[in-house]
Amino acid sequence: FFLLLLQLFSNVLLWDGIVQEDAVRDLGLSKLLNRYLLLNLLNTPPGPDNIEKCSKVVACFPERWFRDLESGSTLPELLNFCQHLLQ
After folding, report:
1. What is the C-alpha separation between 78 and 58, in angstroms, rounded?
2. DSSP 17-33
3. What's the CA gap between 87 and 25, in Å, rounded?
């Protein structure tokens, strides 16, 4: 189930630069990541499998979304995901 969600998430984020960034971030981050992928990650025991899943999620993010952010900050839609990474 995780791999299907990840593929959908990746495909949605590929639309960045083609459709409005707000729409891509809303669907990709607010909907898919925060509702479905994060739920799967929270139910995966800590360890190598969880780390691998998180790495695959991070690899999908467009780098340009992070270029103008200050050090130590993130996108508002990623706060829950960041909290998970810090656990």
Report:
1. 10
2. TTB-HHHHHIIIIIIII
3. 24
Q: What is the pLDDT of residues 46-60, one digit of tens each?
A: 999 999 999 999 999
- Classify each residue of 26-37 as buried b or exposed e, where b means 16 or more C-beta atoms within 10 Å of its C-beta: ebbbeebbbebb
Measured CA distances, 74 to 40, 48, 82 (Å): 21, 24, 8
- The domain ranges of the chain are 2-86
19 with 13: CB under 8 angstroms? Answer: no
Report the predicted TM-score, pTM, of the whole model to 2 decimal places: 0.91
Arithmetic mean of pLDDT over the chain: 95
